[in-house]
Amino acid sequence: MTNSPHTALAAGTSSALVVDDHPLFCDALTLTLQSIADFEEIRTAGTLEKALEIVGQDAKIGLIILDLNLPDVNGLDGLVRLRNAAPEAIIIIASSMADNRMISHALKAGANGFVPKHSQRSVFRRAFEAVSTGQSFVPDGYIDPQGGQDNAPEDALTRLGSLTNQQARILHLICEGKLNKQIAYDLSIAETTVKAHVTAIMRKLGVHSRTQAVLVAQEARFSRVLPNEG
């Protein structure tokens, strides 16, 4: 099933990237991509930071397969950061969290397609064919949950999408409760630089305190996107 048009696979891109912290699934997805497409190289990353490093160094990456549940990121903000780092690449989410609301928010956060993680190879083939021609892809049976009463995650993702990767890293550390001095040490930058970034982060998020910035970040986490149980 396809959705509205997105960017097609860009000319001059010949590599793909699989981002998943499970080596066996990375291997399986690599074999799947080799069977359905003719990429010169398929690279893998087990963390978001490694993925960001790879796309920063390799301009030939045209397709990224991304698992949302990575050890160094909590929620859709990882997708937002990767989309910012690779604006021309096609990103397909491969996740076991394939609820309609999760799919909807992932597409709004910049994904070109969404495939339930344990889908048959034929589904990945259909997804690749769709996104390669500029269409988005969602699984059969998907229903866009528009009209839902909770728009907070979407609003939060829009604001988080305006952050640079460095600002997103700093916000992540703020969410861990770290002070400017600790953040400066962790990122090997000056404390004054951290303060400048924090000011910019609050301005972009439309908040006036670190606590409010944390609340915005929390809106994009899985607990706010997945449906309530019970």
Give an account of the 3D structure.
By secondary structure, the protein is an alpha/beta fold. 48% of the residues lie in helices and 14% in strands. It has 11 helices and 7 strands. The chain has helices at residues 23-36, 48-57, 77-85, 100-108, 121-132, 152-160, 165-175, 180-187, 191-205, 210-219, 222-225, and strands at 2-5, 15-19, 41-45, 61-66, 90-95, 113-116, 135-137. A 5-stranded parallel sheet has the order 3-2-4-5-6, sandwiched between helices. Strands 1-7 form a two-stranded antiparallel sheet. Helix 6 (152-160) packs across helix 10 (210-219). The two termini are 30 Å apart.
Topology overview:
Elements: E1 2-5, E2 15-19, H1 23-36, E3 41-45, H2 48-57, E4 61-66, H3 77-85, E5 90-95, H4 100-108, E6 113-116, H5 121-132, E7 135-137, H6 152-160, H7 165-175, H8 180-187, H9 191-205, H10 210-219, H11 222-225
Parallel strand pairs: 2-3, 2-4, 4-5, 5-6
Antiparallel strand pairs: 1-7
Helix pairs in contact: 2-3, 6-10, 7-9, 7-10, 8-9, 9-10
